[in-house]
Amino acid sequence: MENAFAPISEACVKALSDKTYDKRKVAALEIEKMVTDFKAKKNMAQVKRIIDVLSKDFVRSNDSNKKKGGLIALAATSIALGKDTERFIEDIINPIMNCLIDSDMRVRFFASESLYNVVKVARGAVLPYFPSLFNALSRLVTDPDQNIKSGSEILDRLLKDIVNESSQTFDLDAFIPLVRERIMVKSSFARQFIISWISVLNAVPEINMVVYLPEILHGLFQILEDPLPEIQRMCETLLAQFLKIIKADPAAADIAKMTNVLIVQAQSSNPLIQFYAISWIKEFVQLSGGEILSFASGIFTAILPCLAFESDAKKNIKDCANAVNLNLLELVSNEEDKQKNLSYLDLNPVMEVLRQYLVHSPVPTKIAVLKWVHHLFTEVHDEMSEHANKLFPVLLRDCLSDSSDEVVLQAIVVLAEIVNSATVKGNDFDQTQYRQFLVELLNLFSENNTFLEKRGTLIIRQLCRLLNAEYIYRTFAEILLEERINLKIASTMVRTLNMILLTTSDLFDLRNMLHDIRNEKSASLFECLYKCWAHCPVSTLSLCLLAQCYQHVSEIVTLFADIEITVDFLVEIDKMVQLIESPIFASLRLALISHSNDNADAQHLSRALYGILMLLPQTEAFHLLNNRLQCVPNYWGQPNKINSKSTNESQCNIKFDELFTYFKYVQDLHHQKRVEKRKKNQF
């Protein structure tokens, strides 16, 4: 009967199928000798027949022993063929690689060993089958059997050596998709395998891996979260190598594509990934210059939250994010390249991101955003003007009510820049933008009286520093007069404005302006403020003292006898007495001993202060004012008739009679309101 396995003898077939390794090994050596003889006789047809028998009847058999024998025999065949293995390489390695996924771990082990021996002989001839080999290796490195893993490492090193030897013909375009498919796996062994291959190829001078970096960068950053420190270090080293190459030759890298990847990674919850991503962004900002501004919205999304990191563990991330922020600011500010750089900046997405971060963000993030908004309004005001309407509600409603004074102050800086830049275009202070802003601010105060009491002084004082204080006070006064507003809010607002006027050093010029009401502009401002200040009698008194309208002060004090003296009223009087002793009212104290205007101002002022003294209970303020009045001449013995033409009031065009009538009218409104409130409380 003809031998179905010819030219392999039946005895050899039996031995090759034996369960013992030694017998299979002897049979494989016999096949090796047969192939050697056929090769010497150039009878390659018989060699092909042997390979087919081994592949079909042994390696593809369901009998694991036959598989093992066939695998050893195929390796022996390749050893016998030597360089001629290349002629049969596909027929040899394909059946071997099929066994690498066998359920029997011993079969997988012999398959890996056999593949190693074939590759060792074939060398560069296996490169056309590199994708299949790489796939096989990627499975072996994660095999649960340690012996198979160890064997795969030896095969891996061999294959890397072969690729190095044949780097000029190596198909990198076919390799990158293989890496991309496997780089997101979670297995530490698989990650180590991928990193090692990328590192090896990156080290070959003839291969430019940076060109393909955008395709695998995301996966590399994900490997940084591996729980094994060794894998993390390998990935860090590889990333450092890539960055070094990019810095040496930025033109060879696709920085735009990689920036998009980095923006995503910079928002990772993993601190290591976040740090490296922001570090790369920092380098890219320096390498790309103004072009990086086209990614500003994404970069802001990534770095702005990092500015609020407080823990020591994230300090390096915060410092790096700060550096990126400052570098971007410099690009926008650089006079030499400003216009060119700004051409890359798309304000719409940038402002959308900045506006979002103004709400529900930590204080450092809000501060950074506000500085950016202010900077953009300074540098590109015309382009930013269209964003003012969307910013206003956020700045007013969210930022000004923030718990942080720093945020409030910085928000006012931005608001002032927006308002001021719109106002300076005209000669008249009463610009629409200016007035609209103060109306909105006043509405905000009206809605929340506590907010006015706690933050009103801070906000108004800062506005006066940044904008024209006269405009602020005049506009506020006109709005309070024109708009229907709660009387209590009006009086609280007046008290706040008055206290700022009397105590803030930044309002020195405004106070000096009010000192001389003979000047038409000063008189106009005084009248405007007076009508508004009428909501608070003590504030009105303070304003008149500041304007040196001492005759009118005396008349107001006399009227106090008919005004309901409330606790709030006495508290305000007490504060005013304290202020009389401050440097701001030095001119008032000197007026008490002045002989100018035929002593008219001194006499009116003295009588007014004595009237205030009589209103006060005997508190510290009473004794303070009493001691002051003991130091001035006694005008009571002088004639009652004072030359009215000598007073300050007589030398200006202000109609004090009309103002006094208006003052009494407003005070009557407040009295009626208090009466109504008491009646409601009774029921």
UniProtKB/TrEMBL annotation:
This is Protein VAC14 homolog. Its main location: membrane. Keywords: Membrane, Repeat. It comes from Anopheles atroparvus. Forms pentamers. Component of the PI(3,5)P2 regulatory complex/PAS complex, at least composed of PIKFYVE, FIG4 and VAC14. VAC14 nucleates the assembly of the complex and serves as a scaffold by pentamerizing into a star-shaped structure, which can bind a single copy each of PIKFYVE and FIG4 and coordinates their activities. Interacts with NOS1. PANTHER family: PROTEIN VAC14 HOMOLOG, TAX1 BINDING PROTEIN-RELATED. It is found in: Endomembrane system. Scaffold protein component of the PI(3,5)P2 regulatory complex which regulates both the synthesis and turnover of phosphatidylinositol 3,5-bisphosphate (PtdIns(3,5)P2). Pentamerizes into a star-shaped structure and nucleates the assembly of the complex. The pentamer binds a single copy each of PIKFYVE and FIG4 and coordinates both PIKfyve kinase activity and FIG4 phosphatase activity, being required to maintain normal levels of phosphatidylinositol 3-phosphate (PtdIns(3)P) and phosphatidylinositol 5-phosphate (PtdIns(5)P). GO terms for biological process: phosphatidylinositol biosynthetic process. Residues 450-632 form the Vacuolar protein 14 C-terminal Fig4-binding domain. Belongs to the VAC14 family. One of its GO terms (cellular component) is PAS complex. It holds the Pfam family Vac14_Fab1_bd. Gene3D superfamilies: Leucine-rich Repeat Variant (1.25.10.10).
